[in-house]
Amino acid sequence: MEEKKAKSYIIYMLLVVISVLGSVIFLAGEPGRAGEAGEELLLATTTSTDNTGLLEYLMPLFSARTGIDIKWISTGTGKALKLGENCDVDVLLVHAPQAEIDFVARGFGIDRRPIMYNDFVLIGPPEDPAGVRGKNVSQALQAIRSSGNFFVSRGDNSGTNKKEQTLWNSADVPTPDQEPWYRQSGQGMLATINMAAELQGYTLTDRGTYIKYEDVVESNPVLVILGEGDPDLLNQYSIIPVNREHCPNVKYEKAQVFSAWMAGKESQQLIGEFKLLDKKLFTPNAAQ
Length: 288
Prior knowledge:
single chain; D-Maltodextrin-Binding Protein, domain 2; 2 domains; eight-stranded mixed beta sheet; two-stranded parallel ribbon; 43% helix
């Protein structure tokens, strides 16, 4: 038992390090407002595009093709949108459609463009103590609530957290907050998955990050996919250049080049071919 706890702690620390490293990838010093220093394009993106390795896979080729240096910060979508609103970045790659539409409607972003998608999955212990396997997502959340088994939320206003809150509302049950079985990690997706594993509980994750988790634990995951395939679990990713009418110093032209390249034939093919453990992480859909 002690050996199992020690191994689990090591995995937890590894996942935390991966999440933290991703979140500070361009923060070599105090961040300035976009356009004030350097010629690099600054991207704010969700943790899943970074943790999965997708950006490290695509961005060197983008720079080689266009001559544009790009740096990014990975964070929850809510924080990424705030960085755009505050003129701290030039372009966003995020996954909370309604929040993105509102962001554009308020004049902070422009020319929102869908790029790719995957789906959210509900994961939990193989024994499935709440009995969610085979249920649709609304029934599954109701079962978790009724059973009192732990559910771990991101609790960070990320795209995944926003989707989770929407799903609780769709399940016709009060959105949990202070209930003893409902825990909020306030961390990235990988760390949240491991917290759920420690508690033998459930959580909602995007499929790409779950596959990365499988890879980190050498295909021996503590938590397995128990709910998937529901239409409400679609996870759309889109690019939004920051509006130069709101942020005059933003690198709008370079942001448009980035958006066009990500939607182009070469990048879309690369996104479709990107795999871990021989599993596809994202499906390109810029042409749809």
